[in-house]
Design brief:
The chain is mostly helical. The protein is built from 10 helices and no strands. It has helices at residues 8-11, 16-26, 32-44, 48-54, 56-73, 76-91, 96-105, 110-118, 120-155, 159-195. Helix 7 (96-105) packs across helix 8. It is elongated.
Length: 196
């Protein structure tokens, strides 16, 4: 789409219909900077509400920008704790409205609460991917530890190799022990949400 290369000052020269076409068809391909420029122009012309109601891609990107602002404006530990609460409430079967009310009780602004609830599914997917990476980081020392122990056993090398192998095995196993149940729990919750 040729319109995607238009810079901010050229957005203002586009007719409304052409600007809406750029927004409908091009949002997934815009950089964050171009998306903000387009969003500002749509808001200036009062076209953003109509587009937001009809365009799911626009809404999800708008939520993503708000979510990014939330994550950057809060301490990482606080954001992780909030997401943990949201996931627990969702696993308990609470509705989106109930979760928003519970977040408001936790002194989270209603606008952020609504935005967080709208982003539960993508955040779950992101958390699952992070846990997969963490699990991989547990598999590696476990396997290296096992290989080292077998190597020592077969070739009767120095006993400190055995110690290193055991240490790696225990470290990797503990990592897997903590990560895998969380990953399974979040995957089950994601499946439950997708079925609804």
């Amino acid at each position: 789409m040729s319109n995607l290369s238009i810079v901010k000052n050229e957005y203002s020269h586009l007719p409304d219909e052409e600007l809406l076409q750029v927004a409908r068809e091009g949002i997934p391909y815009l950089s964050k900077h171009h998306f903000k420029d387009l969003q500002e122009e749509l808001a200036y012309r009062h076209l953003d509400d109509a587009l937001a109601n009809s365009n799911k891609a626009y809404q999800s990107l708008r939520n993503a920008l708000a979510l990014s602002a939330f994550d950057h404006s809060t301490d990482g530990i606080f954001a992780a704790a909030v997401w943990k609460l949201i996931f627990e409430w969702k696993a308990q079967g609470k509705s989106d409205e109930a979760i928003c009310a519970l977040l408001a009780e936790q002194q989270i602004h209603p606008e952020y609460a609504n935005m967080l609830v709208a982003c539960i599914e993508p955040q779950l997917e992101s958390s699952i991917e992070q846990l997969k990476t963490a699990a991989f980081a547990g598999y590696i020392p476990t396997l290296v530890g096992l290989v080292t122990i077998l190597w020592v056993w077969v070739f009767t090398l120095a006993p400190w190799y055995l110690f290193i192998g055991l240490l790696l095995l225990v470290t990797g196993s503990l990592k897997l022990y903590t990560v895998l149940p969380k990953q399974r729990k979040l995957q089950a919750l994601l499946q439950q949400i997708k079925k609804r």
